[in-house]
Amino acid sequence: xxxxxxxxxxxxAAVALALASGCSEKGKESGVRENxxxxxxxxxxxxxxEAIPDRLEAVGTIKARNSAVIAARIPxxxxxxxxxxxxxxxxxxxxxxxxxxxxxxxxxxxxxxFEEARHGVEEARARKDLADATFQRxxxxxxxxxxxxxxxxxxxxxxxxxxxxxxxxxxxxxQAREGAKASATVAGYTRVVSPLAxxxxxxxxxxxxxxxxxxxxxxxxxxxxxxLEAAAPESLMGKVKPGDSVPVTVDGIGSDxxxxxxxxxxxxxPASRTFIIKVEINAKGLRSGVFGxxxxxxxxxxxxxxxxxxxxxxxxxxxVWVVGKDNIVRMRLVKIGQAAADRxxxxxxxxxxxxxxxxxxxKVVDGAKIE
Length: 371
What we know:
Layout: H1 2-30, E1 38-39, E2 43-46, E3 50-64, E4 67-71, E5 76-81, E6 88-89, E7 94-99, H2 101-143, H3 149-188, E8 191-193, E9 198-203, E10 210-211, E11 216-221, E12 226-233, E13 245-250, E14 253-264, E15 274-281, E16 291-307, E17 312-314, E18 317-323, E19 329-333, E20 335-340, E21 343-348, E22 355-359, E23 369-370
Parallel strand pairs: 1-23
Antiparallel strand pairs: 2-22, 3-12, 3-16, 4-11, 5-7, 5-10, 6-9, 7-8, 9-11, 12-15, 13-14, 13-16, 14-15, 16-21, 17-18, 18-19, 18-22, 20-21
Helix pairs in contact: 2-3
């Protein structure tokens, strides 16, 4: 009998413990605190649905407005490299030199040919001077009847031949001069200089490498002037024109930037159904190759906007603090959309008329009461 009574007593105690535990868990699940902490010094705002300017996004890449891909013009081997990637250069600065024996020898031969032609002109002019003087003497002798007409005609023919010889010599000199210029120009291609002032953004050669005409050597980009080349949906075709102002965002630069449409490429890519819009940007910290976005107006729509200060991020989660009718604050996960100045759109997780905490978030804890 005593043993049976002890078993019943233990069973009742276990049931009571389970009921107490269940009530405790139910209280935790409901999130209701008998004495919630009270916080002050926070700002609330009621969020109402409003008209939001709708925008179409065009993504693209930041590029320098002026850039030069410098390629080899003659075959040869790289003898010296004077610059490295990231180095700032001035216009006309020597970037590298190419060893090209054939071009150098050709220029030397052309210079020698020019000198020979120049001496030939001097010789022809000397012969012409002699022929002119002889002709003048025979002309006087003919008047004095000291020479025959045939002798006089011979001197005149020599003068005419000498005149033609000067013309031929001068033509050969002109030809040799142009040939020497061309050879000197080709020989000058062994010295590769920067065509503009900027930054060396890429270098694909090193000393000792063999290069061929058309082979890229390095790229120089002008600093301070950049543009976003964005691929816009074809629905914007005809709605964007040069001179339009558009907001732009660039990775690595937090605030929106002011852009101006510089050019619109009128052809549409049949694969992506997009066309290129070039947007000029004047801002510090830009670099070519960075990802950017341009936004173009596309009417209005109804939606919810909350101050950016009301939004918190924890890892991959985005949330706001919502204040209930009982002034109890709860954490609410939301899905956000586009930003507009100092506010951001909430696509899901929040309803019109609800209150959110917009300042003093560092004081808020889940389940606290706001006064």
